[in-house]
Amino acid sequence: MQLEFFPSRTLSLYLARQFATRIVGVLLMLVMVLQMLDLLSESGDILAYPGNGEAQLWTYVSLRTPQLIARFLPYSVLLATILTLATLNQNSEVIAMKAAGLSAHQVLAPLLLTATVIAGISFAFNERVVTRASSTLKAWQAVDFGPIPQSASVRSNVYLRDGNNILLARTVSGSGAGTVLDDVTWYRRDDRMMVTEQVRARRGRWTAAGWALEQPVRFEVHTTTQTPLAALTVARDVPPSAVALTNLDPDGQDIFALGRTITALKAAGRHTDELEGKWWHRLSGPLAAVLMPLLGAIAAFGLARSGQLLVRAVIGMALGFAYFVIDNAALAIGNFGGYPPLVAAWAPFLLFALIGETVLIRTEE
């Protein structure tokens, strides 16, 4: 029995190359198929905007593809694990390695190392590429696939309380005193919370007296009359700092920006469990790739001629998909306050790491 954790250099490179090649192949297949299906469902909305054409379709593909890669990379690692280990088992290569004195952990070591490297690449890709693509795509969708806003931090459908009144902006861009509200609607409500007046404006900008509306039009509910106004300032008690903490998009922020957002929300006395869970999942999510060789290892061991290779592959696949289901469920429960954010993000990973290790040890025995 060898004492080293890894097998020989030649064998390690052979296993890692096979594993990495299958990961890339499965990921390309999944992304291409899902991207085509997604584009078919969205192309009508994209082309509905006057002037949009093939260039805008390619722009959508360039923004959507990073999201698909980030979402389905762990699934690709799982499927590549099953394909690699099942092939090695069927060709009796696992038997040869075991006969040479390698343990199950040594057989899996090159795959685990490859998966760890992929997890690191996935983390960097998510933070540097996916967050920016998600932010830009959401801003583009907020304007119905019209001209992409210059600021990728555009937020859509922002509701703000102004005492009894409501201030609604279809999109919000900028920050601080330069915050701009577009397609603004201000609702005046009485003490019974009934709308008595509605004011619409193309844009709103912050001044010392409140939000100055451009070209406002007032509609009075009781008289059903509509009156253009020269100027109107509303919502003095809703400063840009309050707007900045409304309708945030955590998927469009990197881990450092999200951390600053959580700190600001805590200082304002806001509930942050959901955002904290997402912050921790930025770390635990990419590590799902490291779990997949462990969960799919059952496909590598056991005699192929026993007729149970397919059953073992299905069990490994079931364990992998069970992890994704429980991971999403734990995050959802954490968002409602059922779990602390740290537990919601890390408990599924630790649980299935123990399950995978237990299955591997039992298989080796």
TrEMBL record:
Superkingdom of the organism of origin: Bacteria
GO biological process: lipopolysaccharide transport; transmembrane transport
Principal place of residence: membrane
Chain ranges passing through the membrane: 19-37, 68-86, 107-125, 283-302, 309-326, 338-361
Record's keyword annotation contains Chaperone: no
Keyword annotations from UniProtKB, A to Z: Cell membrane, Membrane, Transmembrane, Transmembrane helix
GO cellular component entries: ATP-binding cassette (ABC) transporter complex
Record's subcellular location: Cell membrane
Membrane topology: Multi-pass membrane protein
UniProt-listed NCBIfam families: LptG_lptG
Name recorded for this polypeptide: LPS export ABC transporter permease LptG
Annotated source species: Novosphingobium piscinae
Upper classification of the organism: Bacteria, Pseudomonadati, Pseudomonadota, Alphaproteobacteria, Sphingomonadales
Gene name per UniProt: lptG
